[in-house]
Amino acid sequence: MPEPSGRRAFASPTTEKQATSLEGDRLCAQRGPATLFAEVSFAVRDGSALVVTGRNGSGKTTLLRMLAGLTAPAAGEIRWRRSVARPFDERLRAAVAFNGHLPALKDELTAEENLAEWISLGDRPPAPVAIRDALAAVALERSRALPVRLLSQGQRRRIGLARLRLSRRPLWILDEPLTALDGEGIDVLRGLLDTHLEGGGVCVAASHQPLPIAPERQQSLRLEADASAFAGSAMQ
Amino acid sequence: MSAVMPAAAAHAQDGDDAQSVLAAFGWALARDVRIALRSKAELGVQLLFYVIVVSLFPLAASPSRDVLGTLGPGVLWTAALLASLLSLPRLFTSDFADGTLEQIALSPRPLTALVSGKIAAHWLTTGLPVALMAPLLGAQYALDSALLGMLSLSLLIGTPILSLLGAVGAALTLGARGGGSLLALLVLPLYVPVLIFGAGAVDAVRTGVAAGAHLSLLGAGLLIAAVAAPLAAAAAVRIALD
Lengths: 236, 242
Hints:
The complex is a heterodimer of chains A (236) and B (242). With 236 residues, chain A is α/β, with parallel strands linked by helices. Chain A has 6 helices and 9 strands; from the N terminus they run E-E-E-H-E-E-H-E-H-H-H-E-H-E-E. By secondary structure, chain B is an all-alpha fold. Chain B has one domain (19-241). Chain B contains 10 helices and no strands. In chain B, helix 8 runs antiparallel to helix 9 and helix 8 packs parallel to helix 10.
């Protein structure tokens, strides 16, 4: 395994002897003429989380979208389970659960229907009992039959958590998972992450606040925005 | 949790076989029809737009049978193009705005099949009602039953082409500023051959010539579009998400 050689970034690998499943090798991101970050390298082992921090506009969302396979890096490569993952790579698509900025919920459908659609999109039969359990776990069982357009921002984020709970994917990519969540919601997220990492899953999350992950399971990566870069949103 | 990971990986390998393509097509079709039926107001507005545009011409033009009969097929076909254009943003824009398009593109199912399903749902909720309503609206133009039959038939073959070509334009203009007017500029020229052969088929019947050639060309266009358009639209969706 190559040593992390971050010029602008710092990765602190954990000491656990576990297989490395997700690697970034000298990744570079560009938005128009501006370089968001360059030469970012890291390796995440099974059962651990990579927490990406950095100022607004430093490219956190872009990095997460690269790791999810939505965006191609301007340079460098991403390896998932030791083989190079290109954008929309089939193996990566089968492995990734992506919770981005956007809620990815249809306003017209209820919370239950949204989850059922999402599960069958992943090519599994939707189990109503499992969906009900997942909604109960995020304390939404009373609103499960309401159209999502009637729910609050925080409740929508909770449906996103229920989706993670149902996902059965080894690689979670979470962009600002704490946004709009209350204390109870953060506790739910803590429980989900514990179970996920305990089972050997991998998580990459961008956050401005400390995430509810045990310190020994966590490594951090700080993106230092290029001074010449535009400090705009990295999202489209 | 770790027990399910090999299952997921194994599944990805047979992602391209015919069964999974059909399943993906069916999933997207059922989902989009369901969502369209939930927002009936939007659906109604688009069909009402078609009815109103078609009904304006007999009021504006001279009410003589000859003029209306000549004008009719062209007006009904042009209105069908506009109704299709008006409903195109529904195909990808809302999914793009709320993030579900990302989830669709990241799903293990084949994206081309998912996009094909969405296009089929678009046709079922716009093209098909337009083709079925055309004979009723055609009565305003004093078209006889042979003409009305040909009008419906040509619309049944032609409107899927509109949905297919339109999907490519809709995917290409995702996230662009002024996407709506750009979409019209991009798509309407592509619609021109469909308009010519579609309205031409009806006109051929009116002038007593066989419409077979027009219909054959429309059918050929449909086959080509059905093969090529979903591939192009899926590629454009991936570019839009980058």
